[in-house]
Amino acid sequence: FWVLPDLLPALHAGDGLFRTTDSVPNHRNGLAMALRMKEFGWSAWQFRPEGQSTQGLAAALYYLFAPKPWVFIPLNAMLHATAGIVLILVLASLVPLRFAILGAIPFVFFPTAAFWYSQILRDGYSCLGYFSILLGWCRFGSTIQKRLPSDQRRGYYGDLLKAFAWVLFGGSIIWVGRPYQLVVIAQLAIIGAFPFLVVQFFRWRAQKAGLVDQVATTVLLFLTIGTLLKFPDSDFGGGPPPYVFVEARAKEYIK
What is the pTM of this model? Predict the structure, then answer.
């Protein structure tokens, strides 16, 4: 609360927000919607007004708690901390745990990271979503390498479902912030599925996996990719037509 106003006043837009970022319009438009919600209740709320979910989240938080940007800090801190934990899990699938923790420290504590968890931005959702999807694919890759004795198939499918659950969890988090990126992620997954099919074919030929397991794994894979493609088309939240920011009423509401 003192860095911008005292050290970088030229970049300070008020309330701890950077002047040249999306935080300013997100705050103003979220505040405008919160004003309408004060009059009309939750019927005036929109989750993604003009394609910006951060504005809808800002309106909800302002309405529930206080019309100040600092109400985002606990949410952004939770997203950032969770992303750091997931990153450790991703790295731990490649290197020993102590090196995974060391590898995640720069992401968690690097000073520039404070930029996205102290502002009203969508980067926290993207980071957590990307890392979760990456963890899911890492778990998927390690799972399909297992041999499948009949007495271990239940554990195999359990691990497979957990891997795809991580992918869908990451997709849902990205959908909150930047749903259009899921199309690219799903397209990359489709491209990566073709080498997977080739490997699965040769594994079947080498009798390292049964045909039923191959088909079931492939079906689950493409169901997960199809769900990622479907995410950007889904939305919720109604609300009135676009609103107008009224400076005088906003100041009155803040008081």
Answer: 0.82
